[in-house]
Write a structure and sequence with these properties.
- By secondary structure, the chain is of the alpha/beta class.
- The chain has helices at about 10-20, 50-55, 70-75, 95-100, 120-125, 165-185, 220-230, 305-310, and strands at about 1-10, 25-30, 35-40, 45, 60, 85, 105-110, 130-140, 150-155, 235-240, 240-250, 270-275, 280-285, 285-295, 300-305.
- Strands 5-2-1-6-7-8-9 form a 7-stranded mixed beta sheet.
- The longest helix is centred in the middle third of the chain and has 25 residues, at about 165-185.
- It starts with a strand and ends in a 16-residue tail after the last helix.
- One of its GO terms (molecular function) is methionyl-tRNA formyltransferase activity.
Length: about 325
C-alpha cells in the first residue's frame, strides 16, 4: 500500500481527496490544508472542505499558517511517504519536502499548462474567452506550476459555464485522471514533457479592483466577466453611488424591435429598457446586456421579474451604472 500525503484546501481538492480515500491500494497518512478561516457576515470560523473530508475519514490533519519552518513541516519530512499529491493547497511548498517522498510530489492543476499558471486558472479561462480548459498533472518543482507535464485531460467551456460549475466539472475530471494515472506513475510507465516556456501564461490571484464591471466593454466581455467571478469573488457595479451586483445576464448584439427604447441618447452603462423578465443595459461596441438576476445594495439577490414588482420601470430607465474610478 502506497503512503500518500495530500495537500489541498477548496471543494475542488476535497473531491480529489475523496477519490483517493476510496482506493484500497493507497493510504492517505496525512492531510495538509489551510487554517480555519472566518466566513460570512458573522465571521464564523470555518474548516476548509478538505479538512472536513479528512475529519470524516479520521486522517491526521496539519494546518500551519506558514508551512516552511513550522513544526508540522518537520513532522511531514519524517513520515516516509511514497508520494505527495497537491491540489489547490494555497501555499508554497519547500523543495526539501517535495523531494522527501520516494516518488516525489505531483500536482493536480486546473488548467492546460503551460496556460494559466497560478491560483485562479478557472476564473481566467472563462474571463479570457477560452473555448476549452482541463486538468494537468505535473511533477512539482520549487517554481510555481512549472514542473514537467505528466498527463492532461481536456473539456470544453460552454457559454453557460461559470466558475462554480466549471470547478465542479474539473474536480471530477481531476479525480478520474489522477486515479487512472497513479498506477502508471508508481510503475514508471509514463513520459514527462517539459513545459514550452514560450506558451506560458499566468492567472494571478484576483484583485479587488478587478471585480468591477467596465461598461465600456462589449456585452460579450461583460458576460464572461460576470460568469468568471460567479459565485466567487463576484462582480459589482455602482448605482446611485452604491454597490450592486449583476448575477445573471445574456449578451445581445441588438434588441428585439418590439422593446420600447424611450431614451433619445444611450450611453454605456445606462438602463435603456425593461420587459417582464429583464432590464437592458447599453454596453460598449453597440451591444446590450439583458439582466435577469440582480442584487440591489444591501439586499439579497433576486430575479429581475421580482425586482421590477417593487421598482417601476420608469424609475430605472435612464439610470446609469458606473465604476468607482469615475
Amino acid at each position: 500500500m502506497k503512503k500518500i500525503i495530500f495537500m489541498g484546501t477548496p471543494p475542488f481538492a476535497a473531491t480529489i481527496l475523496k477519490g483517493l480515500i476510496q482506493q484500497v491500494e493507497y493510504e492517505v497518512i496525512a492531510v495538509v490544508t489551510q487554517p480555519d478561516r472566518p466566513v460570512g457576515r458573522k465571521k464564523i470560523l470555518t474548516a476548509s472542505p478538505v479538512k472536513k473530508t479528512a475529519l470524516e475519514a479520521n486522517i491526521p490533519i496539519y494546518q500551519p499558517d506558514h508551512l516552511a519552518g513550522s513544526k508540522d513541516y518537520e513532522m511531514l519530512l519524517q513520515m516516509q511517504a511514497d508520494l505527495i499529491i497537491t491540489a489547490a493547497y494555497g501555499q508554497k511548498i519547500p523543495q526539501n519536502l517535495l523531494l522527501a517522498p520516494s516518488h516525489g510530489a505531483i500536482n493536480v492543476h486546473a488548467s492546460l499548462l503551460p496556460k494559466y499558471r497560478g491560483g485562479a486558472p478557472i476564473h481566467y479561462a472563462i474571463w479570457r474567452g477560452e473555448k476549452e480548459t482541463g486538468i494537468t498533472i505535473m511533477k512539482m518543482v520549487e517554481e510555481m506550476d512549472a514542473g514537467d507535464i505528466l498527463t492532461q485531460s481536456t473539456i470544453p467551456i460552454s457559454d453557460k459555464d461559470d466558475v462554480g460549475l466549471l470547478f465542479e466539472k474539473l474536480a471530477v475530471v481531476g479525480k478520474e485522471l489522477l486515479l487512472n494515472f497513479l498506477p502508471k506513475y508508481f510503475d514508471g510507465e509514463y513520459q514527462a514533457s517539459p513545459q514550452e516556456e514560450s506558451q506560458v501564461s499566468y492567472s494571478p490571484t484576483i484583485k479587488k479592483q478587478e471585480e468591477q464591471l467596465d461598461w465600456q466593454q462589449s456585452a460579450q466581455a461583460l458576460d464572461r466577466h460576470i460568469r468568471a467571478f460567479r459565485p466567487f469573488p463576484t462582480t459589482y457595479t455602482l448605482l446611485d453611488g452604491q454597490r450592486v451586483k449583476i448575477w445573471q445576464a445574456q449578451p445581445l448584439v441588438k434588441l428585439d424591435a418590439d422593446i420600447e427604447r424611450p431614451l433619445a441618447m444611450e450611453k454605456p452603462g445606462q438602463i435603456i429598457a425593461t420587459d417582464n423578465h429583464h432590464f437592458y443595459v447599453r454596453c460598449g461596441e453597440d451591444s446590450y446586456l439583458a439582466v435577469s438576476e440582480y442584487q440591489p445594495a444591501g439586499k439579497k439577490r433576486l430575479m429581475v421579474e421580482d425586482y421590477l414588482k417593487g421598482t417601476p420601470a420608469e424609475h430605472l430607465i435612464g439610470k446609469h451604472f458606473g465604476t468607482e474610478k469615475e
